Amino acid sequence: MESDLKQQLRLVDQELHQVQDQIQSLLQHQESLLEQQAELQQLIASCRDVAAHDENGNGPGASKSGGVNWSGSFEWDNRAADIRLNLFGIKSYRQNQHEIINAVMSGRDVIVIMAAGGGKSLCYQLPAMLRTGTALVISPLLSLIQDQVMGLTALGISASMLTSTTTKDEEKSIYKSLEKGEGDLKILYVTPEKVAKSKRFVSKLEKCNHGGRLSLIAIDEAHCCSQWGHDFRPDYKQLGILKKQFPRVPMIALTATATERVQTDLREMLQITRCEKFVSTVNRPNLFYEVREKKANGSAAIDDIASFILDKYSKKESGIVYCFSRKECEQVAAELRKRGISAAHYHADMKPETRSSVHMRWSTNKLQVIVGTVAFGMGINKPDVRFVIHHSLSKSLETYYQESGRAGRDGLPAHCLLYFRPADLPRQSSMVFAEMAGLHNLYAICRFCQSKQACRRAAFFRHFGEKIQKCNGMCDNCAFTKEVVDTDVTEHARSLVSMVKESNDVEQKLTILQLVEQWRSQTKKSDTDAQLAKDLSKDDVERVIVQLILDGILKEEFAHTAYATNAYVALGTGWRGLLQGTGNRKVKLEIVKGAQSAKKKSKANTAPISEEGMTFSGLGSALDDLRQNLAASHGGIFPHSVLTSQHISLLASQKPVTMEELEEVIGKRIAEQYGNEILVSITDYLEEHPADTENGGAWIAPKGKRAAEGPSTGQAKRVAKAPSDKPTKAPATRQSKRVAEGPAHDATKTRSIKNFLQKSTKADTDVGPSNTARSNQTPESFGPSTTKTPTKRLSLPRPSAISTPAPTTPKEEDVKQEAGKVPQSECIDLDSDSEGEEDQPALNGTVFKRENEEEDVIEETSSEEDEFSLFKRLKRQ
Ligand SMILES: Nc1ncnc2c1ncn2[C@@H]1O[C@H](COP(=O)(O)OP(=O)(O)OP(=O)(O)O)[C@@H](O)[C@H]1O
């Protein structure tokens, strides 16, 4: 009787398992359908936009909504143009900026989706300058806030922040300004916590609004509102109260990426359901995407990374290497240092002083590479990051887009390199499986990595629901020719799945790596299957297993211990179909045979320029030196706060030689601050290179490679279109024409400019026309008054000119000190040919310590508060 019942129970259990599998599979299917639905809706919306654009004859960013053509003329146009050029130093608007500014100025709520480096800040900073009162900006990280406030202060804009680092006196004066309108505070930055937790602050805001002085509210990194976004912050959820309290104040929510679902969340949470939406392309044409197979041997993998950096970035161009765990960061940084690269680790488990110092050294180009966990993320404002390397897989395509997108924010060529090894999958999956759609997102990036043929860029377009655009050879699969064989591995797959079934039947759990080992050793011994083992390398077997997981034939299962989560392989929903051969189910694997070579250039295809480093040449290089020196002598501000790379490119091509000409390129404010030095640098250069009509000193890719299209400057385009490896001729600007006409003419001209400068400097010192403006500036903003000696040739050493690493430089010593901090006991054996065994128990599964990145990020946010004063102090030193 009892045995009958037990038999029945077993049957019910079995059926329950099957039902659960089916539910799981249906849920996955539902998830993927929802995703497709969102993507299709977005595609339909963008088709409508294109149709509207065609009808109206407006540009792609033009937006006409509710009868308003945001690209049209508005009463503030002239004032806006004046502030744009003369205050912000920006010559023309980029896609959508003008329209967004018009919508905000018209009092509308707006969602802005614009890629990293696209120019989101201008969209709220410019209206903040145009409108009366104070703009409130909510930003998630102190480091971001601090950079923005410093940048604005350097431009002479009254900007402050209210954070835990604000002194009582500063707070008092900010509150007075909000309450009574004292002072002229134009932009106030706060973290979301301030809005969510400080009643006092909200009541001051109410007073500010009551007095008609709350000009607008900007929510930066707005994707943090949504649980569907990649960086959810609970405090962002509270921001809905702002619209409730201040319904008439325009709100602008900005983010680099937001799927349709995230956008819906944003609208609802911020209570701006009737807002205008401006979506710019996610395309970053200057980024070259590449996925490489990561070698199983840890040391060989680092060798690969090191030679990539040393070969292509020998001028110490900045880069980031992302790692999975803190321990891995320390080890990889130490190994890179051993290979002659100036690198330091960065993660949440470091003293605030050390973290701040690493960040500072990297920001000021004294350290080439930061090796960080994803905790080193959102706060990065450095525009000239030339490469982002992922030593380990990201957790989704979206996070990869964000993390790799920290490269090339200045619009110049940069390289995004991801090292993928299928055996890295369980490390990530054991971290994300509990997240909503965690596995679904992780498997999407695995598919991206497993593919040897599909365009990487197209994967991003599809993911973000955007129409596919040309890649122009800017990813490995489009740039390189390789023989990819679509290999039928159905038999191998069957054999692997049988093995999983057998072990599951006896309740034995297998990790991916254990399955690989067991399968290889058993098939080698088998009379019938020995050939199967010979067909595939160990790496290929790992790839087949991951492919089976991606196809739902196998699945991952997770088991918890007190300290870790273990990932195992189990039977997925499709295993029966494969084993029974129903539906002619085939399993295919893309296998690359032989070496890859660069594809022949097609009409659209440029050379993979990011294969090479990028640097300025000629006058561009002289101006690059100058901005480094000026930044250092002006209280250690960032070089791009003096001149952006776009400015340098324009100056190098247009070669202005009078203050008026210079103002046309960089605007009055920057010209007022640094104009004399810039003109001296240009005239000196022209004097020394009278025949320099070539290239104009724009950025060049060394070793004769062509540069990709840079930021939206005419010069960038011209360089990109150069038909040969020869440097491109400068456009026929006034100056280049003049130079071409004869050096004698120019020499006279440059001498007279020098005379003029000498005179004007003297006048400056005596009565100082530009002193009036400067007298209002804080010493910290503008530093020592180097503008007083413009005629003296600036010949300070060029920081970036330090070529090969010299072990005795203080910089290297710093780095060695960092190395000394890595406890030996924590170092993995990089020579072992292990499958990540350093993190695994001997027998029973893949164990990963819970050093997850979320923890890192949270820690960073809190400890960054403490770091701020340190950061400021270090910056001043
Ligand atoms: N219209 C423009 N023309 C030239 N440069 C511009 C323009 N608009 C903005 N920039 C410059 O582009 C750079 C990036 O701008 P910004 O920091 O606003 O980007 P972002 O969209 O906020 O990027 P991220 O999401 O990475 O923070 C800045 O140096 C900014 O001065």
UniProtKB/TrEMBL annotation:
Record flagged with keyword Phosphoprotein: no
Sorted UniProt keywords: ATP-binding, Coiled coil, DNA-binding, Helicase, Hydrolase, Isomerase, Metal-binding, Nucleotide-binding, Nucleus
Similarity comment: family membership: Belongs to the helicase family. RecQ subfamily.
GO CC terms of this entry: chromosome; cytoplasm; mediator complex
Annotated ranges, domain Helicase ATP-binding: 101-276
Places the protein is found: Nucleus
PROSITE patterns for this protein: HELICASE_ATP_BIND_1 (PS51192), HELICASE_CTER (PS51194), HRDC (PS50967)
Ranges of Acidic residues composition bias in the record: 828-840, 853-868
Cofactor(s) essential for the protein: Mg(2+)
HRDC domain: residues covered: 613-692
Originating gene: LOC112282392
GO terms assigned for molecular function: 3'-5' DNA helicase activity; ATP binding; DNA binding; four-way junction helicase activity; hydrolase activity; metal ion binding
Listed Low complexity bias regions: 797-806
Enzyme Commission numbers on file: 5.6.2.4
Catalysis performed (reactions): ATP + H2O = ADP + phosphate + H(+); Couples ATP hydrolysis with the unwinding of duplex DNA by translocating in the 3'-5' direction
Residue span, Helicase C-terminal domain: 301-453
Coiled-coil ranges from the UniProt annotation: 2-36
Enzyme kind, highest EC tier: isomerase
Stretches for region Disordered: 693-877
Protein name, as recorded: ATP-dependent DNA helicase
Pfam families hit by this protein: DEAD, Helicase_C, HRDC, RecQ_Zn_bind, RQC
Keyword Nucleus belongs to the record: yes
Amino acid composition bias (Basic and acidic residues), ranges on this chain: 738-749, 810-819
Compositionally biased tracts (Polar residues): 768-789
